[in-house]
Amino acid sequence: MSAGWSWYVIALVAFNILGCVWLLWWTARRRPGDPAPTETSHVWDGDITEYNKPLPRWWINLFYLTIIFSIGYLLWYPGLGAFAGYGGWTSQAEHDLEKSRQDARLEETFAIYRGKPLPELARDPGAVALGRGIFANTCATCHGSSAQGAIGYPNLADDIWHWGGQPEDVLATVMDGREGVMPPWGVVLRGMGGEQAIDQTARYVLAMASPDPAALRDFDAVRGKKYFDGVCVACHGADGKGNASLGAPDLTDDYWMYGKSMASLRETISNGRHGVMPAHGEWLGETRSRLVAAYVWSLSNTQAAGTGDTAE
User: Fold this and answer.
1) Does a structural domain hold residue 48?
2) pTM value?
3) 118 and 168 together in one domain
4) Total domain count, the chain
5) At 227, phi and psi to the nearest 5?
6) How far from 8 is each of 56, 73, 74, 77, 84, CA to CA, in Å?
7) Is the dihedral of CA 49, 52, 57, 59 positive or negative?
8) pLDDT at residue 310, as a whole number
9) Of 80, 152, 230, 291, which has fewest CB within 10 angstroms of its CB?
């Protein structure tokens, strides 16, 4: 707050306080020549008279005490422009104090799960319930309440893991985040075979995931393999199975995070993709990260987790 605005607020507050004091004094005093409280000339039915008696002195004094209290309050707490107040109170400090209290209560709740392996947590109904609650608060915005994802956000309820599906992989994803980058190959492929090179590469990628072996013998798919071998094998491998250490997905399954259409594949190949999973370790802490990771891992490892059913 600038000095000008600060003085404006102080003046406005002082004006209102002084106005209240003047109003009390002006309305409470009696002047020479004022009619008696019983002489209002307001009479009904011959014997019902309206009086104009002043407030009792003790009542008026309570108003003055209220004004004095308000002045003390404004001096103790920051109520006068940029003045910080003699009490040193701030909303940030109040928030931090309350947060530390609530964090301490949460730590007591989560203490029994500290350091436990994910498979063990996944077999504990209480731990899974806590993990589900953490997931709903922090992960469902992107992955959905059922963890089945959306366009651009992976499905966590299946058995496909772009960064590895071992418990330690899932925990690392939650705590440290992931950043998957598919480079834009449009310029390179156009230099190798023109605009059709992008289409033929996309055709080959679709053919790899097709259950019909004949799809790989299609003319465009055959030409596309040449381009695939030239620019894509470094990450996705010669067989298209991907590389979990890079986050490069398996192109031979039938899961397509950005869609299976030719338009989507052309966009991916030409302009690339950049997916970011934020790191939650600092925010959630290790124990809560373990709980939510155990819940996610249990969705696709139902037998190991002992749930006996799927999230779907």
Assistant:
1) yes
2) 0.69
3) yes
4) 3
5) -70, -40
6) 36, 19, 15, 18, 16
7) positive
8) 42
9) 152
Distances (CA, A) of 207 to 20, 200, 203, 232: 83, 10, 6, 15
Q: Which tokens hold the place of 95? A: 């928030």
Model pLDDT, residue 307:
58
**Contacts of 240 by beta carbon, 8 Å cutoff, 6+ apart:** 205, 208, 228, 232, 250, 251, 252
Does residue 186 share a domain with residue 165?
no
Residue 75 pLDDT: 93
Tell which residue, 171, 176, 149, has the closest CA to residue 291.
Answer: 171
284 plus 268 within the same structural domain: no
Please tell me the distance from the alpha carbon of residue 167 to that of residue 53, in angstroms, as a whole number. 81
Instruction: Pick the closest to residue 123 from 262, 249, 305, 254 (CA basis).
Output: 305
pLDDT tens-digit profile of 150-168? 999 999 999 999 999 999 9
Structural domain that includes position 129? 104-177+278-305
pLDDT tens across 296-308, in order? 999 999 877 665 4
CA distance 145 to 143: 7
3-class secondary-structure state, position 188: helix
Residue 103 to residue 129: CA distance in whole angstroms: 19
Tokens of 225: 């393999």
Distance CA 20, CA 42 (A): 29
